[in-house]
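Hi P.,

Sorry for the delay on this. The queue was packed all week, but I finally got your sequence through. Input first:
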Amino acid sequence: MIAGVYAGAATLRIALCPAFELSYCEAMADTAHIDKVPPGWTRREFPESFGGVAGPFCFRDDGEIGVGFFSEPRHGNLGGVVHGGALLTLADMALFNICRDALASSRAVTVTLNSEFISAAPIGQFIEANGELIRAGRSLLFARGLIFTGDTQLLSFSGTLKRIS
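Then the structure:
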């Protein structure tokens, strides 16, 4: 339960409960590199879609499966870590990245997206997803993957896409 959000001295503080305070500015400080792209990746903008609001996203250059983003303060929750919805958006993007070869020119929609949160995701880090295609049927594609930063696993996911054309 949120006890309150208030400004104090030169920092915004978020009180999640009477016994716990988090300095928002300290939690969000390490974001100097968010406009950079990791070596071997290409940044892509999707200005006319939800991906434009949630991104920008980076994709691997070598044709391997991989999609990621630099977590920014706007991706954070009141606890000072990346919001679960941002990680789930990345998982959904990753499903399509994992299934891209099997989809070829077909369009698809997400039918299911299952997830297990493993660790908190820090603000200011490159967060990446990869995975594998489990099965590609005539209309349904099944995939699973992991989201991580460095050596820290953040979320495991699995999902199903349905071809629509």
